[in-house]
Amino acid sequence: MNKSTDYERKQEELTWLENLQRNSWEPEVIISGITLAFLFVFPAKIYEFSVYLIQEIGVGYFPSLLILFYLTTVVSVFKIFFVVHLCLRFVWAGLLGLSYAFPEGVINKNLFKMAQDYEYQKPADMVLRLEKVCSMTFAYPVSLVLVFLTFTVYLGLLIGVYVWFDLNFFIIYVIFMVSMIGFMALMFAKKKTKFKTWYSQSMLSSISAIYQSNIGKWLAVVYAFLIFAFSTPIIISDTQDFTTYNNDRGLIEKELEWSAKYLHYETEHDFNTRYPRTFIPSEEISDDYLRLGIARYEGDGKIIEQLNTDFANELDSLGWKTLKETADLHRVYIDEQLVKIDSWSKHRIGTTKQKIYQTGIDISNLENGTHSLRVQKLLLEYGFVDNEPTLIIVNQWDQFQFIKR
Question: pLDDT by residue (tens digit) across 240-295?
């Protein structure tokens, strides 16, 4: 009696699984469509999150850049995967309709004579063949999800330790590299170990082995490589102008020659994004006072005390203003003439609630026409290994033009 019941239960499970396999296209299309809708929103959020880490948390530019590239790569790769899957399902739907309209396929005698002696695929066979390809394409990202999820949690822990304990990034870099080398050594060791035995039984390893053994190990590798290659232009587009948030460097020649208006003028700016450096109300100024804003960087606050103590003599020799706020690290020049700024006010702006300093500059003595505004910044540059500070002056921390009417 029990054997009969077990047999019936197994048959029901097999029937249930077969029905799911036959109708897998429905959840595949729904999941791909919904996922793509979210994936096209994520890049802007990732970009803003990376900028937030720099300006509000005080995370260095390099670790924030790594986070941006890593998360953007993840999103871009999955975009390509699901776009490819939906395109294949589009072709599959067309073949499905063709198999319904012409179930017998090609009628050779009705073709031109030159094409009558050849054999052609039946629509049903093409549908079944492409169905397997579509399902395989949809299932492939599952293994990557597990990889990216594990890697993201690990990176998140490292960045958390880096920020919480205010460590030198070189220490985090060493920990990361040592852990990666150790993992690779365990994976590629010829000796069968408990770790390799455990890993081989995991879902990640099993999925990878299924693909390699069924479609070919090199084809699986090439397929993944091509997906990453196709995602490269998307990654470059989604990370554009992030270098302007590198607080420790001046503008490069390309940025000076092709100045981005949306980074400097409020009328051109999207208030859902943050300003990287300096900004004014508009390119054309008709008032006698110029309202100037400067983005605040949390990391600057960490160097104020050290500048006032360890580098007091250097500050005196430079004739630099007494450092009370991070805004005092900046000097403003209009047409290469130093502008005296008595005070800065503090504000939060836009939907991002970005912290900025703001001041008013008297430009009544300027003639009508085009004028240049340049910002100089005082900073400490820390060695990557020894973490020793060096006083630096970034002469072209920001520079752009405005027109007085």
Answer: 889 999 998 898 888 888 888 999 999 999 988 999 999 999 999 999 999 999 99
What are the backbone angles phi and psi of residue 198, rounded to the nearest 5°?
A: -65, -45
Residues shown for the chain: 405
The CA-CA-CA angle for residues 393, 397, 401, to 5°, reads: 135
* Cα-based distances in Å from 353 to 52, 66, 239: 10, 24, 22
Number of Cβ atoms within 10 Å of the Cβ of 205: 16
Q: Which residues contact 365 (CB under 8 A, 6 or more apart)?
A: none
CB 145 within 8 A of CB 204: no
Tokens 């394409």 belong to residue: 137
Strand partners, 373: 334, 400
Q: Are strands 278-279 and 337-338 parallel, antiparallel or unpaired?
A: unpaired
- Tokens for 137, please give them: 């394409």
Please tell me the distance from the alpha carbon of residue 307 to that of residue 380, in angstroms, as a whole number: 8
Q: Tokens representing 385? A: 């290994």
Starting at the edge strand that comes first in sequence, how are the strands of the sheet with 389-404 ordered? Answer: 284-285, 389-404, 369-382, 330-334, 337-338
Backbone angles phi, psi at 164, to 5 degrees: -65, -45
265: DSSP letter: B
Cα separation, 293 vs 264, whole angstroms: 9
The tens digit of pLDDT for each residue in 49-94 reads: 999 999 999 888 888 998 899 889 888 888 888 888 888 888 888 8
Q: Positive or negative, the Cα torsion across 311, 249, 294, 402?
A: positive
User: How far apart (Å, rounded) are the C-alpha atoms in residues 395 and 397?
Assistant: 6
